[in-house]
Amino acid sequence: MTTAAPAAKAVNPKLVLHVVAPLVAFYGLRALGVGAFAALLAGAAVSAAAALHGIVTQRRVGGVQIFVLATMALTVLFALVSGDARLMLVRNSWGTAALGAWALITLIGKRPFLLSTGAIAFPEDKAATWERNWTRYPAFRTLLRRCTAIWGALFLLDAALRVGMALTLPIDLVPALDDVLVAVTVAAILIVQRCYGRSFLRRHGLRLRGAEIVLADGSAGTSGGAGVA
Q1: Tens digit of pLDDT for each residue in 15-67?
Q2: Is 7 exposed, middle or buried (0-12, 13-18, 19+ CB in 10 A)?
């Protein structure tokens, strides 16, 4: 009893609703002899139900839920018209394509994707520190812009790979590989960002301590910051 509770808490309900449940629906129906197109529709219905569940339980409509439902509706509509199961599979590329394109578009403006993401994702105190880093250190500003470009490029590559998988691989293999590709893409982005970020800051006499920029010797940085060579 005492070990079951922590294990249950370790399971993320969102992971179950958005990843596990659609896969179970698809592969369960395929095992029962249901056609690929109908099984994919069932998986899409589970994903849509998960998005609606989030809206109902949180009592607010977020951009993610709207995007999921809109892409789902458009994909299902086109798929029903064409009757093509592979078109249903291509929908999984829309999310990463949109995220990659948006990350690159933000490079045109004053606040790149990673600056805005940090301000939202961090607790209030760390978000304030993130903003101070941006204001004080030209090297940090350059790093966030370059890392945003990396995010954008790798997510667009992810989207292209998804389209390729959807159009060429066996249909029954693609839904599972889509989720594997998510993990691989995110892991690749985080590894590249961590290694490149550390190296870049070190070349400019800086390093990150939590969310705070400090001098490489561990002392607090000055408001002037370090420039980019």
Answers
A1: 556 567 777 777 887 788 888 778 777 777 777 776 666 666 666 555 555 66
A2: exposed
* pLDDT, tens digit (0-9, with 9 covering 90-100), for 83-133: 777 877 887 788 788 889 989 999 998 889 888 887 777 788 888 888 899
Q: Which two tokens stand for residue 207?
A: 């390093």
Tokens in use for 8?
Answer: 């249950």
The pLDDT score that the predictor gives to residue 146 is 95
pLDDT in tens, 217-228: 655 555 444 444
pTM: 0.72
Measured CA distances, 206 to 42, 115, 189, 196 (Å)? 51, 18, 22, 13
3-state per-residue secondary structure call for the chain: CCCHHHHHHHCCHHHHHHHHHHHHHHHHHHHCCCCHHHHHHHHHHHHHHHHHHHHHHHCCCCHHHHHHHHHHHHHHHHHHHHCCHHHHHHCHHHHHHHHHHHHHHHHHCCCCHHHHHHHHHCCHHHHHHHHHHHHHCHHHHHHHHHHHHHHHHHHHHHHHHHHHHHHHCCCCCHHHHHHHHHHHHHHHHHHHHHHHHHHHHHHCCEEEECCEEEECCCCECCCCCCCCC
CA of residue 2 relative to chain centroid, distance: 34
Which single residue is written with the structure tokens 């939202």?
120
